[in-house]
Each structure stands twice: as C-alpha cells, then as structure tokens.
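Example record for the data management plan.
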Amino acid sequence: MAEIKANISGTVWKILVQPGDVVEAGQEVAILESMKMEIPVTSDYGGTVVEVLRGEGEFVQEDETLIRVEP
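Corresponding structural encoding:
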C-alpha cells in the first residue's frame, strides 16, 4: 500500500479525493494551507484511494500520512 504524505506542516484546507476514487501519478489529492499560502499535495502513485486519514481543518506535520492508495 502506498502512502501520500504532507510535504509541509500546515492545515488541511481541502481534500480532493474520497475512498474508492482512482488517482493517477501527479494528480492533486489535497491542498494544505501554511502561512496563508495554498500548497498542493500530489500523488506519486496511480491507484485507488483506500483511506483518507486526515480531514479538512486538521493540522498535519511534514511527512505525516494523509491518504493511502492501493496501486
């Protein structure tokens, strides 16, 4: 199982996928907000979203897993 991780510490502004969605490598799956900037999070993997671990409005640390994908 592949994990999509936060690339910075910040607040989850928007989750763009749900469990069951098919994603492609390079696709935006979430947007983080840090210091009033929006930072997209992209998937390094293609596959099906299995689990979304963090919700909108939650604070996350850099390298924290946000989404799990089954290749």
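Summary line stored alongside the record: The chain is about 0% helix and 55% strand.
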